[in-house]
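Notes to self after the Tuesday call (sharing in case useful).
The group wants a holo model before anyone commits to mutagenesis around the pocket. I volunteered. Ligand is pyridoxal-5'-phosphate. Logging inputs and output together so the record is complete.
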Amino acid sequence: MIQPVAAFERIGEENAFAVLARATELAAQGRDILNLGIGQPDFKTPKHIVEAAVRALRDGHHGYTPANGLIQTREAVCRRTLSMTGAEVSPDNVMIMPGGKPTMYAAIRMLGEPGADILYPDPGFPIYRSMIEHVGARPVPVPMREENGFAFSAEETLSLITPQTRLLILNSPANPTGGVTPKAEIDKLVAGLVAHPHVAVLSDEIYDVMTYDGEAHTSLLTYPDIRDRLIVLNGWSKTWAMTGWRMGWSIWPDNLIGYVRKLAVNCWSCVNAPSQFAGIAAIDGPQGAVEDMLEAFDRRRKLVTGLLNEVPGVSCILPKGAFYAFPNISRTGWKAKPLASALLEKAGVALIGGPDFGILGEGYIRVSCANSDDNIEQAIGRMAEFLDGNAV
Ligand code: PLP
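Result:
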């Protein structure tokens, strides 16, 4: 039997997709499933964005685009970056990517190899570790601690840097915790990084608009000291509810942008043309739908947190960003993955066990706010009832 090379045995998974598949399967069998496992907004892509893609197809935009993306799309990204962060970015440093994930692959592939250490958040988005292991680098978890609001600690992060460290992956606002790293902590982190010029930074800012309570997002682009070794990942998936369009962008330093463009030429040629026109409409068009979505997520994160804190054995800090809550379930006596699985199979509630986001995720589950207030109330009610009847 033909086997792949060992690097492919080291590719992991994103279990949220498996939970979604199982939830869909149970629903198809007639079970009443409430899904709080979802990592995508429960909103439709705004109409004017869809129309822009349809118009592009009607206008004959069926062909290849430049591998790094249409100049108009890259310029739109620069406008959006300037208005969000105040940072000037040249379209020459922008890559239009087929979603957010390919930037993780590109950065980790470009900077990771056996002998290199890559620092990544734990609990964190599972693809970071998966890709680090795939390329043969050593994954070094940076703990995201509940007592620290699931934010990066500058001191702890800097203490993990060694001469072997090649890349530090940051994510704020964060999946799965909803943690937002405050500006003062990022200031300290960047000040410390100045002493480590061999460390590149990949800042995953895909949830940048999703901060609450006046806690503004701080982009790493606003620190000129590290711009020559900074890669910023962002995209359309979350902000404009466009997960299926596969539209992302990243911003690269001068010395790396040529390599990621070549990777695109070799792997996917370019992102499909109509989606790139939709991306321009998303950035330049009315933002009312985004504001409505943020208002719903803000309301629901409070609803979710309040309800979870009423469940015996469960405690939940109010997430400051993204659209997830990450309650501590350790006092229920349940381990996180068996609890998530039992809740799906027995109570019809889909959510994700913390260990699917890293070793330090034990004792937690991820609850997504991408469902209606009604469904959230029902789902957490079922969870409370299940825990009440199934003490361990
Ligand atoms: N980065 C983070 C932190 C995410 O949570 C996700 C998706 O869940 C992505 C990147 C990937 O986004 P995309 O679907 O655009 O590849």
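Two things stood out.
Residues 288-309 form the longest helix (22 residues).
The pocket of pyridoxal-5'-phosphate is lined by residues 39, 99-101, 125, 171, 175, 204, 206, 235, 237, 243, 248 (CB under 6 Å).
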